[in-house]
Design goal:
Layout: E1 9-10, E2 16-17, H1 33-48, H2 60-79, H3 84-93, E3 98-102, E4 108-112, E5 121-125, E6 128-131, H4 132-144, E7 152-154, E8 159-162, E9 174-175, E10 181-188, E11 191-198, E12 207-210
Length: about 240
């Protein structure tokens, strides 16, 4: 049962040669540090300089085509920036800095904390979407509860946004006969939303206003905007 193990041979490159032809069948054995260094140096050199057949060579004409294609896609994307969906996404992720405080027009008002350029989205009018019947019921209930102002914004003939108890800063925007903003109804994923756009350049600490465009009624609501062309009433 006892037999002499053959002497381990080394190849010409200094690496050990496996007698059985398989490294796993010979069990664990140590490798000299010199051999390790030789192997590591060879592997690093191979990694730093990839084979010539694997290097990608780009033709100048092909590079020009790729760049022109990128420019075309960029221009098409820029041209589609006027879509309501893209603008609404910009409104969500690039919100304007606004604050509400006491207004000289009426009670509370909304003011800009940063310069706003013309024709930019300022804020969305957020609230609960309700039907006309529910709006009439809530308006009467708000009067019974002593709530003097109800913040309801009509979207269309059937839908009204109620921001009286569930809304954002947009409900504090006051009316003006000479406003610096205007309201626009946009459709995002088959849902109508009201967004306030800037009509002109708005400076810091300038109050945000828009025309309520109330329907003409016999009982008039006085307007306190104080502008030069003030109509005197909201309706």
């Amino acid at each position: 049962t006892s037999f002499s193990t053959p002497k381990k041979k080394k190849r010409d490159d200094g690496m050990r040669e496996h007698v059985t032809g398989c490294a796993r069948s010979e069990g664990y054995y140590k490798i000299d540090k010199k051999d390790k260094l030789k192997y590591l140096n060879n592997s690093r050199a191979f990694a730093e300089e990839p084979p010539a057949d694997t290097q990608v060579r780009t033709h100048p004409l092909l590079t020009g085509r790729v760049r022109s294609e990128q420019r075309r896609l960029l221009s098409s994307f820029t041209g589609s920036c006027d879509s309501d969906l893209l603008k609404f996404n910009q409104l969500k992720f690039r919100k304007k800095k606004l604050k509400f405080c006491k207004s000289h027009i009426h009670d509370w008002g909304l003011f800009a904390m940063e310069p706003i350029a013309a024709d930019e989205m300022v804020i969305e009018y957020v609230g609960q979407n309700i039907r006309q019947v529910i709006a009439d019921m809530r308006e009467k209930r708000y009067e019974d509860e002593g709530i003097g102002s109800s913040y309801m914004f009509r979207v269309d003939h059937d839908t009204i946004i109620d921001a009286t108890k569930c809304g954002n800063f947009a409900r504090f925007i006051n009316h003006s006969c000479n406003p610096n903003c205007y309201a626009k109804v946009i459709t995002v994923e088959s849902q109508k939303k009201i967004v306030i756009y800037s009509k002109q350049h708005i400076n810091v600490n300038e109050e945000i206003t828009y025309d309520y465009k109330f329907p003409i009624e016999d009982v008039k609501i006085p307007c306190l905007c104080g502008s030069e062309n003030c109509r005197g009433t909201l309706n």
